[in-house]
Design brief:
Keywords: Metal-binding. It comes from Parahalioglobus pacificus. GO terms for molecular function: lactoylglutathione lyase activity; metal ion binding. This is VOC domain-containing protein. By secondary structure, the chain is an alpha+beta fold. The protein has one domain: 2,3-Dihydroxybiphenyl 1,2-Dioxygenase, domain 1 (Roll). The strands form two sheets. It has a nine-stranded mixed sheet with strand order 2-3-4-1-5-8-7-6-11. A two-stranded antiparallel sheet has the order 9-10. It starts with a helix and ends with a strand.
């Protein structure tokens, strides 16, 4: 029960990142399924769900990987939640870190090794400065604006204690 209380009801599962070996084929597949692409870079794409505000993303992997996903739980105050969980004995792979894609994240693994990110992105999750603006014509994507706004060097800065 202590773990449930520590996680609280304010955590919102809203994004999963999937590894892919061919970004072009993967993006095409999800666009054809009807998802709206909101971020488009050669190594990363993000889609908005058709209902609600959940998103999922694709991350290009250049090395062999086993299929897996990263679960994202959005929290207003990542640092406080990490300290709270550390007091309960949880160990983090990465303490709260500010990233160039404007999210603050901490990384932990579940007992099976699944990667979980506790993060805060605010408006930057659905509306990053490099958001892909698209026009649609009878359900077909007609433009690819916004690509030049995406960050070219994704870096991290650990500002945690």
């Amino acid at each position: 029960m202590a773990v449930y209380e520590a996680l609280g009801k304010r955590m919102n599962l809203n994004q999963i990142t999937l590894p892919v070996t061919d970004m072009t084929d993967a993006v095409d597949f999800y666009l054809r399924m009807g998802f709206m692409q909101i971020v488009d870079t050669p190594h990363y794409a993000r889609f908005e769900s058709q209902v609600g505000e959940a998103t999922f993303s694709l991350q290009l992997e250049t090395e062999i990987f086993s299929n897996g996903a990263t679960l994202y739980f959005e929290i207003d105050d990542v640092d406080s939640k990490v300290r709270e969980l550390q007091l309960l004995g949880f160990e983090f792979e990465q303490l709260p870190t500010d990233h160039s894609y404007l999210w603050r994240e901490a990384v932990i693994h579940d007992p099976s090794g699944n990667r979980i990110k506790l993060y805060h992105a605010g408006e930057n999750r659905l509306h990053p400065p490099w958001r892909v603006e698209r026009t649609y014509q009878r359900g077909i994507n007609a433009s690819r604006e916004g690509l030049s706004k995406a960050p070219t060097n994704l870096t991290s800065v650990n500002t945690g204690d």
